[in-house]
Design goal:
By secondary structure, the protein is an alpha/beta fold. Helix content is about 30%, strand content about 25%. The protein contains 21 helices and 56 strands. The protein has an 8-stranded mixed sheet with strand order 14-15-18-21-24-27-30-33. An 8-stranded parallel sheet has the order 16-19-22-25-28-31-34-36, with no helix packed on it. The protein has a 7-stranded mixed sheet with strand order 5-4-1-6-11-8-12, sandwiched between helices. Strand 54 and strand 55 (about 790-795) form a beta hairpin. Helix 7 crosses helix 10, helix 9 (about 455-460) crosses helix 11 and helix 15 packs parallel to helix 16 (about 665-670). The longest helix has 29 residues, at about 815-840. The two termini are about 55 Å apart.
Length: about 850
Amino acid sequence: MRAVLMAGGSGTRLRPLTCDLPKPMVPILNRPIAEHIVNLLKRNGITEIIATLHYLPDVMRDYFQDGKDFGVQMTYAVEEDQPLGTAGCVKNIAELLDDTFVVISGDSVADFDLESALKFHREKGSKATLVLTHVPNPIEFGVVITNEDGQIRRFLEKPSTSEIFSDTVNTGTYILEPEVLDYLPANQECDFSKDLFPLLLAKGDPIYGYVSETYWCDVGHLDACREAQYDALEGKVKVDFAYSEQSTGLWVGQNTYMDPTAKIQTPALIGSNCRIGPRVTIEAGTVIGDNVTIGSDADLKRPIIWNGAIIGDEAHLRACVIARGARVDRRAHVLEGAVVGSLSTVGEEAQISPGVRVWPSKKIESGATLNINLIWGNTAQRNLFGQRGVTGLANIDITPEFAVKLGAAYGSTLKPGSNVTVSRDQRSISRMVSRSLIAGLMSVGVNVQNLEATSIPVARAVLPTLSVSGGIHVRLHPDRSDQLLIEFFDQKGIDIPKGKEKKIEGAYFKEDLRRAQVHEIGSVAYPSRVVDIYTTAFEHHLNVEAIRNSNSKVVLDYAYAVSGAVLPQLLGKFGCDAVVLNASLSPTAPSATEREVLLGQLGHVVQALQATIGVQISANGEQLVLVDEVGTPIRGETLTALMTHMILTAHPRGTVVVPVHASGAVEQIARRHDGHIIRTKANPTALMEACQMDSNVVLGGSGDMGFIFPQLHPGFDAMFCVAKLIEMLTIQERSLGQIWSDLPRISHRSQTVRCPWTVKGALMRYLVETHPADSLELIDGVKIVDHKRDSWILILPDAGEPLVHIFSNSADRDWMDEHLRKYRASVQEFIEKEQGMEEVNL
């Protein structure tokens, strides 16, 4: 007798386990489901098996080959173009089925007595016999009613709750006579339960149900997959184990080492070539595949671990599935019902929450808590917020569904009925994400003032005038053209503080989202005169007459990322000649290399037109690079020093706020003008907050971040900076080149070293402990100051990446170079030492 093993399913409900594996090849007790079915058929005297394949057919063919090693004869029929359904695929091989045959599903674990079922079939003279069983909840299956003789009277495929009329269900195992296939059309999709069996009933052909009282489990979803493993271990179903029983209830493969201090409860199964470390606890119900390493002190409570996985020291696994080749690092937690896909990595001290699924080849960073499925992209972030706002790959990490939830999380931290602004750059991806954010805000009863495509300076400036609780701005990341940046503002237009970020993260990850009733859903309004409000403030804080009398010519390069037509209009209104380059919008932002080419072109245009200055504006109106009258770019620390010099010349005894790593030239410039320098943490929020705390502040920021003019609004504004430069150049009657030549000559360089997250804190402590207290400044990172030479070294951990930045600053170039080399070597040595200690512990 022959059997047809239907093994074509892709197992979408078993994802991510079936992303690279057909469902019949999912392991149960380290053997594929299909192998358990083959063994069941063999125990019942059926050794000729035809497997119908569709999804990833080579996986099963490569495993079973001709079946000889499994004591059967295997042949294969592949549905090349499209799946033909449960009956269609059998119809496709009708010429191979010339006698009574068995059809069995490839996604179930059972120990049916098929010999008794065959006897029943023949005694009844049945054309089709369905193997049936009783289940507590029949909604997921085809429900069947038979008479006292076993003849089927009625059935319904996957009924609703109101349609249930029996707890007897179809198991997907059938005994058929070949002539029933004559009712089916060739090369068409058709199903046994939906097409063939209703037809047989209608025609009055004998169709019977054999009720089996033995074990059956449809491994159609992840919970059932785990339960089938536990049932098999506990002996509820007869299966052939892949390994010998070392002691009662403990099956262990060959060449496996278990440390004598490991505690193992039974029943449990451990594969071949495994290494179980000291003091490991393995609770009853645990299944461990081949070639698995379990680190010391790991705590395993009924996980299913597939072949080749690596489990780190002190890891905690709770009734989860760790797929092939996955890695769970030290002290990580994977909780009940979670699934880690093949070749994925769960970083140190990370946590995968209950029921969360991680698709194959993903990386969960150290310390991250993952509360939602990780499907697209590569990484689950430690937090939603990074150094500045929420960032991620456009339409991969930051998707519409992500943005809806993020908007709802932010709105849930506000009072119902609150108002917020939403603005964006002009790219389509930003429009899509902003609309999703708006939907999320409305869903929690928050009203939206939609500023649409607006530059960030304009959005910040108008925000205090609209009586809102805060704002959101969406744009392409200024440094990564494939990423989006979502920024959140408070009611003053300042980036929200860390405490507020934590509240949003808490609402997002805990899914503590408010749901508004229908009459409470938020509204959307479109404020008018947004640009007029900004323009009025812009003019109010400038010496317009000085600009009008300057006869300046300015070349503006928008680098194919228009931040709005506000600046050219304003400069024209003030009598300046504004020449605009590259004002069209490209689908993607130019790369750093492309911007450099555009900057070179800008320099040539400035020279050719004998312009006063050239400006390349970026970051949606926040950042800029200057070009002087001879075409030389001015940026970075030079631009910071130049702006500090010009603003303090205009406002002696004023205060300038700069980030902690800014060049020491700013202090020398401040001394010339009896001014004052405030250094802050190296993040935009700290700069904005510091600028608002002191009424004497006349400038904040840096050449890399942009510049803040706190009297105008609290954010960075490249557009106002251009106008202010023209004003100051006119009043001071100097060119950019002349001012540049007067700046102090300070040597300032930086280098970056990779540093694991877990080492950063220890590195900072080491630096503090190994230097005198009077030489340290701890504003952000660790700054070691040589007061005699007015020089310093700053070791600054990166807030968003496993990196450490080392800055060296001195008027003495040799001192700068020597100490940069010295501290780079010292930092690298410390990191290598710490990593070596971790490896020894592992």
